[in-house]
Amino acid sequence: xxxxxxxxxxxxxxxxxxxxxxxxxxxxxxxxxxxxxxxxxxxxxxxxxxxxxxxxxxxxxxxxxxxxxxxxxxxxxxxxxxxxxxxxxxxxxxxxxxxxxxxxxxxxxxxxxxxxxxxxxxxxxxxxxxxxxxxxxxxxxxxxxxxxxxxxxxxxxxxxxxxxxxxxxxxxxxxxxxxxxxxxxxxxxxxxxxxxxxxxxxxxxxxxxxxxxxxxxxxxxxxxxxxxxxxxxxxxxxxxxxxxxxxxxxxxxxxxxxxxxxxxxxxxxxxxxxxxxxxxxxxxxxxxxxxxxxxxxxxxxxxxxxxxxxxxxxxxxxx
Length: 319
Prior knowledge:
The protein has twelve helices and three strands. By secondary structure, the chain is mainly alpha-helical. The radius of gyration is 22 Å and the shape is globular.
């Protein structure tokens, strides 16, 4: 009888219910206003920085191409979450029911773009490493073709790795259907399954995937900036100041990404006993903070971009 009940549940659970709005419903118009302002800021600031990079051909190409790619990656990730959330909040619904396919599609986009963020940060670290540690070979190694290949690799590898995880997760039978989140991710979706060998195998695959698209790039970032720091300590103060100034924005964004990922991992792996309010709050903070942080850091901390942005905005006011 129990087996039959499980089979019925797994067959009929064709949708997933996101109950994160329950935690937001009492102040939904406040959250709607905050998320609207955040999303508008992300669209305008990211778009402005990308426009400056694309329109100013005198900016150093490899480094700023990677910056533009990271901001476009952030825009795409925001577009996969904010519009749906801003549609659901004013409706007054406390629960949002989505199909398994839609949930897995959102989880795929969020997961693959999250992995791409780390890999793009690793390419930025490679760019800074070659610029500081191998300046004579910099132009020969980072050709336009090499830059294009690196960008494709940064987007295609996580898409392939997360795509396989999403396909495998889609085949799991579900014994529960409620997620205490406002958006889907792969690990949360797998937690709804009935368990068994397939779910455990998928969890192992998830850890291997995280090592490939998160931990290895993060280790390379740390190695690259460690090497840069060791060289700066042996060079003149002017050289060290310039090198560290160009590395600081990338390092700040990397720390932001790493902390967000670490908190997400801790919540998922160790926080099984945490309440739904905690899960929803953390998932919202992990959504808002990185998308706000990137354009602020690159717009204000990178002198070349900030100068062109001021000039552009002053011209707009004069007109």
